[in-house]
Sequence to fold (536 residues):
Amino acid sequence: MPATKTRQALKVWGSWKGELPLQNLYTAGIAGNEFFRVLKERGELLGAFCQQCEYGYVPARSFCERCFADLSGTFKTVSSEGVLLAWTQCHRDRTGKTLKKPVWLGAVRLQGSSSALIHILKVPPQELHAGRFVRAIFKPAAQRVGSILDLSHFE
Amino acid sequence: MTRVAIVGLGFVPAQRKTPQYSYREMTYRAARQAYEDAGISPKEVDCFITCAEDLHEGTSIFDEYTPDQLGAVHKPMHTVTHDGLVGLACAWMAIESGAAELVVIEAHSKASNILTLDDLTTYAMDPALTRPFSLSPHFVAGLEMNAFLTQSENTEEACAAAVVLNRLRAGKNPAAAYGGETTVAQVLRSKPLSAPLKEAEKSPTADGAVVAVVASQERARRLKGRPIWIEGISWISDSPSLESREWGQAFYAQEAAAGAFRMAQITDPLREVDLFEVDDTYAYKELQHLEAIGLYERGKAGRAVLDAAQGPKDFPVNLSGGCLGRGDLLEAKGLYQIVELVLQLRGEAGKRQRACARRGFALSWRGVPTTSGAAAVLSKN
Fold:
């Protein structure tokens, strides 16, 4: 139905506009707290390692989703370098509005981990390929606040 | 184990917008049709199930708003926050357990009322790791499409062909909202959403409602309708985390399908199943799912879709037009697949009727950012 007709129909058929003003706190937890503390204070990435599954999680987690083992004693930092697994060029913001400047995102497997960290990618498009070497660029210490955006991007 | 059958079906054809009807009225229409089809009164039903999400409905504790339009006031009723195929599995379990003989399952979409769907879907992302990017949630599909094409060597042209084919097929389906003709070139020229994903490769949303009446074998025999039997049903979730899922692979589809085929004692789906309704919320998903369920080897689904889009070929996949042609009906996606299978198996699919359809398969996926899927095998015998 064309937009004009839709608007006309909506005038004929009544509806009410409403909203749900939701706000929440999200607890980082022990593993999350440690991951963001290390990121903020040291500019490093913390992982957790399951010996049984031989699987390294980044960010660090308190338990293994595969074998259910307790990983709380296994936290250690991983390399800030890794390889690109997948990438996309995003053209919309979270509301669906077209971005003035598209943003590249990549899935990166850091050396010493098995999972993929999703983050902003600044690599020339012609150089994008699976397995490309990338490294994490962190914001200067004074600008870090304990957010995933303390990691500026991969390049 | 008793056999379990779908003995009644009612649905509202998918529409782009439904300003004239409330969701209650759409569901009521579908329910009246389903009860008449089964030859029952809602008073006879042992248990009612709705599949819905509060945030899609814009109403918290939405399960309190579900009984009246189904005739379920003063009856056992619960809501499953999942796709309709999982609701069908819950109906199957209620009957197999002996807790019920006759169960009604409902799912609907009033997507046209959701004014901020992208923003709402962003709230399904991890609040600390992903939401801070403030990007459209379709980036998850763009990232996965890139990984899938890279790993499988399927092509963007083949993904675009799925749009062409499914929209064309939807033109023969009066219950589809987006039937029409388009070309691979037009799809590839559409605006980028999250490259390589294009705008035309994302299913547009639609409104609708489906109600199904499900019965034990004994109860089905006492009813007037022609039962369509649930031979297999299975559902599974992979890792919810973007970080630890296997990008490019649809493990949930592989395992859900394997479970349903195993239960139905099917060892060669291509020979033993006559038609397939496979989730295509995004065009590449049709190819990925066809390979994951074992219909095609890795990298071969794209060729099959391209061939089917270029001319008459025996390609019994998404005869309904799928999500790309019918529309994305949110939690009702899986039950609209069931609508197509039941109509085909009853021989009531009109212009798109598949000859000698005896057994059909459905695979649903819950959409980004999930890795949850459900599968069902239905049979007329």
About this structure: The radius of gyration of chain B is 19 Å.
